[in-house]
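Can't paste images in this forum, so I'm doing it all in text. The chain is below; anyone willing to post the predicted structure tokens underneath?
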Amino acid sequence: MRHLATDRRSFLKSTASLAAAATASAAFAWTTPAFANRSANARPRVGCIGLGGMGRGDAHGHRSFGDIVALCDVDENQAAKANSDPNIGNGQADVYGDYRKILERPDVDVVSIVTPDHWHVKIAIEALIAGKHVFCQKPLTLTLEENQLIRTACRRFSDRVFFIGTQQRSDQDRFLRAVNLVRRGLIGDVRKITVGINGGDVGGPFKKSDPPKNLNWDMWLGQAPLVEYIEQRCHNNFRWWYEYSGGKFTDWGAHHVDISLWATGRDTEGAGPIEIDGTDAKHPVPFKDGYPTQDDSYNSSHDFNVIAKFDGGMEMHITSRGDNGILFEGTKGRFFVNRGKIAGQPIEENWDKDQFGPEQLQELYKGKPFEGHKNNFYRCLAEGGLPVSDVFSHVQTMNTCHLATIAARLNRVIKWDPKAEKITGDDQAASFYARTPRAGFEIPRV
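Text version of the structure:
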């Protein structure tokens, strides 16, 4: 299989040379038909890790550009469902219960990681070490420390493309228009951003039981604490437990906080908030010192309005109340955007007329032409350069999201030094910077 990998890498390098000579509009069509018509020796080979609903959806997308040769899930049923899907494994992919089997394969070029959040960084760093390009779903990290670890790894292995599944960065008519409108100063200086992300689910107490035979519960838990199996801890409901996620703060926050920081130019290293007020946050179970006192019920915050203050006076209200979406308020105007609409006086009166077209889109796409989200990922495999959803800006988003989570868990105001990337003046809050992984599931340092 090594000669196939060599042929593919030669193809990608030769395509990069071709692309370098192309015009800004790109001579090569990075579209589904273009990739479908490539020979098997030229198409990237993909291994998919995590095959729940989102994982299978992403796998469908990857199959448009590469050949899915390996699948992995700790739930045998989910792996079997993906392999039997004609648009994923088509009954021909190799199926594993241990993701390391995919990373060991020299013929796998791309790894798609769509596991619960607490597994993302460990698998991603190991994939980089193994020489793979990485597509990882949001939110990329579980802790502030993981932000540092993954950023360091991506700098160390800068020849690998690392792409985040924040698809709003490829929504031309709504979010890209919003980002461009703010970045061009058309609504003046932004003083307030309201980020509506809805509240988390409330539920429990739930029944503890033996895990189903098709599920490797110990592997599912990974670096998280070893606990008895509860059906509602797993699969679609993991997000409502701080042990595995950050609730809505890191779920929708990974999307809307990202757009907000990108639009205001605060998605670069050293440009984060300086104070985060979590005094207006409620949780579905009692908390003590930032930790839930019950282990049988959802514990992520369900009702909150966390205020992040930035140098220069801008405030970001991250709230469960009101509409899901982003309200930008500037000194000259205000507008609202979400996945269904973009509305407000600047939109109705076309304040961005003649200032939002191919040139502006290419600027937002870091010099590459605007196209579909995964199209950009596979273009970067061949041409090099940072993708539109890059790890470095995403780390800045996740810093803000994790800080909101910590402030909400402690119900107080915390201070953040965005340049040193440290919580200051509060040892208890600073203790949430990292967590000790379960033995045998440590994250590699590179």
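The mean pLDDT is 92. The CA atoms of residues 38 and 65 lie 9 Å apart.
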